[in-house]
């Protein structure tokens, strides 16, 4: 009887789903990763977002281990890095992982931004703005970390970059002295940069969570740029497998950099201790800053060069407001696809120009490519509007079948309208619709 009574006990716990969906703490992670609804048509370009998460974890762990052996002092910083490379067990690998991990981070972040520009992900404005915040924080973190080995290029790179603060009106000089902690880049500067380099990743983690929170609130974009509520699949196992394949490809290239050619993306001058009395012939940043450095040196005026350089990055905040197309993805805009690849080509070319000496023909090439870089960003909304106008179908001719002859009909129709021949255009459309 007891067993029969318990069968009708309404207070007995009921199984309403898997454990991961009922546990309050695990449910948050489950809804964000395991059972997250994702569009079914996502391609490989969406894997770079998860690769960025992998890069962040690698940098956090390797940086934490390196900090146990690093000494933030101008007389010992360079020697402490040499000690890590030579005396610490697997220290050479740990340092190469952290140094080349920053390069992999920027490879992934540039691919991630390019995907957002091509497929119109920037129309989710909150997600896009937090992503741009993360990009700026990553650039600041990379610059701070580049100064810590206190090599020749680190020291003079820090000197050049921090001097940009002096172009700020009124308070620029005071800010520069405060950042330096003296009258030049010195021991106080190194300690401040090390402290910020250690703390900034925790701010980045918080912004990453906000970025993912707003992304999962509205859902991911897709290559077609259309509403995907009716064509979603769970994140696991459909996209965990794709991401794992991306991790494998990432690891092959990453391990090649770490174990085979660790200096492929580095600068050999940084293996000389910092010498304030000897300026290198060519002071240049890491490769991932080369495009902004090329834009900076393309402007002969110091303040103008700094302002244009920052504009080349801050312009990402304006991208959502510059979208004028009826459709989200560039899959429907052949003209804009050309503009997009011109932008990518100018970015790669500026990166190459930034590594060249400051002499002709590299100066004029840098100036031309800088103009192309900004022009491609400004031409994008114009070409979106032009293409939408070209494909605008006349309302009084909706019965016209869409076939190969449609392009000829539409070209004549638009040409007649362009020269203000409205009646002739209408007559031409009616004539073609009866054919």
UniProtKB/TrEMBL annotation:
Localized where? Mitochondrion inner membrane
Q: Where does heme b b566 bind?
A: 112, 211
This protein's cofactor list reads: heme b; heme
Biological role stated in the UniProt entry: Component of the ubiquinol-cytochrome c reductase complex (complex III or cytochrome b-c1 complex) that is part of the mitochondrial respiratory chain. The b-c1 complex mediates electron transfer from ubiquinol to cytochrome c. Contributes to the generation of a proton gradient across the mitochondrial membrane that is then used for ATP synthesis.
Instruction: Kindly indicate where the leader peptide sits in this chain.
Output: none
Q: What is this protein called?
A: Cytochrome b
Q: Where are the transmembrane segments?
A: 51-72, 92-114, 126-148, 154-172, 193-214, 244-266, 287-318, 338-355, 362-387
Q: How is the cofactor bound?
A: Binds 2 heme groups non-covalently.
The opening ranks of the lineage are: Eukaryota, Metazoa, Spiralia, Lophotrochozoa, Mollusca
**GO-annotated molecular function:** metal ion binding; oxidoreductase activity; quinol-cytochrome-c reductase activity
Q: Which species does the entry assign this protein to?
A: Mytilus trossulus (Blue mussel)
Sequence ranges assigned to domain Cytochrome b/b6 N-terminal region profile in this UniProt record: 16-224
Primary residence = mitochondrion
Topology in membrane: Multi-pass membrane protein
GO CC entries: mitochondrial inner membrane; respiratory chain complex III
Q: Name one GO biological process term.
A: respiratory electron transport chain
**Which positions fall inside the Cytochrome b/b6 C-terminal region profile domain?**
225-395
Q: Which Gene3D superfamilies match?
A: Cytochrome Bc1 Complex, Chain C (1.20.810.10)
